[in-house]
Amino acid sequence: MTLDTALTAYIWADSSAVPGRHPESVPDRALRARVEGLIERMDAVTPGADATDLAAWADRTVRALVVERDDVGEAGIRALSALLSWTWR
To answer: Which of 43, 66, 84, 86 would disulfide-bridge 72, Cβ 3.0–4.6 Å?
Structure first.
């Protein structure tokens, strides 16, 4: 399982209609810790005046958080962005 796959499984858990946190979906403890580490960093961010479009803000925020990583691709970015924007709705 790649980090992208783990992020998607953790956040969408069997194609849930609403993003959430499903640690049981990533049985590998080391991989789950990496997923939760990224989510923890993301949770430290709060929307500011630039968050008039919450989905666009979440996408920009997640991309800025993972810009220096080569192990988070588009699927992981989409999953994290969905969780972040859902958290602040």
So the answer is: 66
